[in-house]
Amino acid sequence: MRPSRRAADEMRAVSFERNVSKHAEGSCLVKFGDTHVLCTASLEDHMPAWLRGGSKGWVTAEYGMLPRATGDRMRREAATGKQGGRTQEIQRLIGRSLRAVVDLRALGERQITVDCDVLQADGGTRTAAITGGWIALHDCLTWMGERKMIDRDKVLKDHVAAVSCGIYKDALVADLDYVEDSAAQTDANFVMTGKGGLVEIQGTAEGEPFSPAQFLGLLELAQGSIAKLVALQKQAIA
């Protein structure tokens, strides 16, 4: 029995609240159970220097956790003068995941930055950020389309969502919360498109190595969970 009493393939309650920011071109408050992430998508005039004149745009992401997103207060990374390695790794993952479903040439020479701020953490913050970040990006592109800046349907090629799956007490389970994540034998994050394409897989054995058969079991769990997440995204933007 999982600590949350969920079935092995049962996700936490997932919700998307759109238009939560007055100023951002796209915004979404995403909740995976007790993990809450505020995602905002901002259209920016400037482009990275290495992309200027290349006739294509860019989608990037920034990620951070508020000081009391966890049980004990964390120092703001700004107070230390630099970002931690975990933060850099996660925001690069979010950016790669979102770019996987964007036609950068159809976007034109514009940059969209998706900021993902963790308000409350209970495991799976990066997967929630990717899934909610897609909603914010969709709404930013819709905003641009309404102003005849782009054809949104040409720029945004597909959905993208993410989920964590792992091995907890020898059982394969989907959407790990913190209690499971902190004690998991194996922890894996899967990023997939709405059509089922794999964007990225991050998998680590914390103890005993996991077998190819177990990996395929985790992949199957992820496929089912991401199909549910994409269905929820479609409901949210309908």
Automatic annotation (TrEMBL):
It comes from the Bacteria. One of its GO terms (molecular function) is tRNA binding. Its EC number is 2.7.7.56. Phosphate binds at residues 86, 124-126. One of its GO terms (biological process) is rRNA catabolic process. Keywords: Nucleotidyltransferase, RNA-binding, rRNA processing, Transferase, tRNA processing, tRNA-binding. It is an enzyme of class 2 (transferase). Residues 10-140, 160-223 form the Exoribonuclease phosphorolytic domain. It catalyses: tRNA(n+1) + phosphate = tRNA(n) + a ribonucleoside 5'-diphosphate. It holds the Pfam family RNase_PH. Gene3D superfamilies: GHMP Kinase, N-terminal domain (3.30.230.70). NCBIfam families: RNasePH. Belongs to the RNase PH family. Phosphorolytic 3'-5' exoribonuclease that plays an important role in tRNA 3'-end maturation. Removes nucleotide residues following the 3'-CCA terminus of tRNAs; can also add nucleotides to the ends of RNA molecules by using nucleoside diphosphates as substrates, but this may not be physiologically important. Probably plays a role in initiation of 16S rRNA degradation (leading to ribosome degradation) during starvation. HAMAP family: RNase_PH (MF_00564). Homohexameric ring arranged as a trimer of dimers. This is Ribonuclease PH. It comes from Candidatus Tokpelaia hoelldobleri.
